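Quick one, C-alpha cells below. Sequence please?
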C-alpha cells in the first residue's frame, strides 16, 4: 500500500484541501496537510478557461509539474482524463505519475460505464502505483439513480477509491459506505454533515473541491467592497513576504 493509499485507512478520514496554484498548495501544506488535491475549476479559472476545456489537460500537467516534487502528496483532478480513448487517458496518468503525482480523480459525467471502467483499467495498467479515485456524477448531475451499479463496475475495474459528490444525506452516505469494498470519498458541503459526522458514517476521504478557491474569491470581493465603502476589511491576509515565500519552491 502506498503512503497516499494508507491515508484512506486511518481512524479519521483524509481531509483533502484543493489548491489551484503553487502558493495555495504551499500555504495549505504549511498548515500541516500531508496531502493536497487540485481543483479543476480553480485551475481552469486561473488560466481563463471554462472547467472541462480541452486545453485544461496541459494546464493540469503544468501545475502537476510545479507541485509534484513538493514535500506533500499530490492528487490531481483529471476530469474525464481529457480523452475518450482509454489508452490516451493511461498515457496522461503516466505523465502525471512521472512528475510526482500520487493520485488522480477520474469522473464519469454520467457517460458510458463501460468506457469509464476501461479508463480506470488503462490507468492502473500504465501507472500501477497511482491511486485512482473514480468519481460518479449520479448525484452531482442527477438524482442518484444507478450509483451502486456504476461504482460496482468501477470497483471491478480496479479503482482504489470512489467519489460521490453531491451526496449529502447521512443515511444515504452510511448505506453506500457499508456497501463498498473501497474507501468512499464525499465532497464537503457547508449544509451537509461535518467531517466528524462523515467519519461516523464510514467516509474515508473528504474533499473540499472548489470550495476554498470560491471562498478566496469571495473574500477578495468582500474586502474590496469594504475598502470602497471607506471601511477596513475584516479577516486575515498573509503578508507580502509570506506569499512570496509560498511561491518559492525552496520555501520551507
Amino acid at each position: 500500500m502506498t503512503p497516499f493509499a494508507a491515508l484512506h485507512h486511518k481512524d479519521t478520514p483524509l481531509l483533502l484541501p484543493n489548491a489551484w496554484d503553487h502558493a495555495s498548495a504551499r500555504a495549505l501544506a504549511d498548515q500541516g496537510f500531508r496531502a493536497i488535491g487540485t481543483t479543476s475549476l480553480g485551475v481552469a479559472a486561473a488560466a481563463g478557461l471554462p472547467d472541462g476545456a480541452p486545453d485544461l489537460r496541459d494546464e493540469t500537467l503544468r501545475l502537476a509539474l510545479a507541485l509534484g516534487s513538493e514535500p506533500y502528496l499530490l492528487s490531481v483532478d483529471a476530469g474525464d482524463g481529457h480523452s475518450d480513448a482509454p489508452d490516451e487517458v493511461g498515457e496522461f496518468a503516466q505523465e502525471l505519475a512521472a512528475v510526482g503525482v500520487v493520485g488522480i480523480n477520474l469522473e464519469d459525467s454520467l457517460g458510458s460505464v463501460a468506457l469509464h471502467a476501461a479508463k480506470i483499467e488503462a490507468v492502473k495498467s500504465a501507472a500501477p502505483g497511482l491511486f485512482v479515485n473514480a468519481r460518479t456524477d449520479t448525484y452531482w448531475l442527477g438524482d442518484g439513480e444507478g450509483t451502486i451499479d456504476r461504482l460496482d463496475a468501477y470497483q471491478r475495474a480496479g479503482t482504489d477509491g470512489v467519489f460521490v459528490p453531491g451526496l449529502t444525506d447521512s443515511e444515504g452516505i452510511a448505506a453506500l459506505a457499508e456497501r463498498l469494498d473501497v474507501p468512499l470519498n464525499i465532497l464537503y458541503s457547508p449544509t451537509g454533515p461535518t467531517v466528524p459526522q462523515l467519519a461516523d458514517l464510514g467516509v474515508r476521504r473528504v474533499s473540499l473541491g472548489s470550495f476554498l478557491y470560491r471562498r478566496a474569491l469571495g473574500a477578495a470581493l468582500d474586502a474590496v467592497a469594504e475598502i470602497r465603502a471607506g471601511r477596513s476589511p475584516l479577516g486575515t491576509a498573509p503578508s507580502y513576504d509570506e506569499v512570496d515565500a509560498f511561491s518559492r519552491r525552496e520555501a520551507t
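The mean pLDDT is 95. The CA atoms of residues 80 and 118 lie 12 Å apart.
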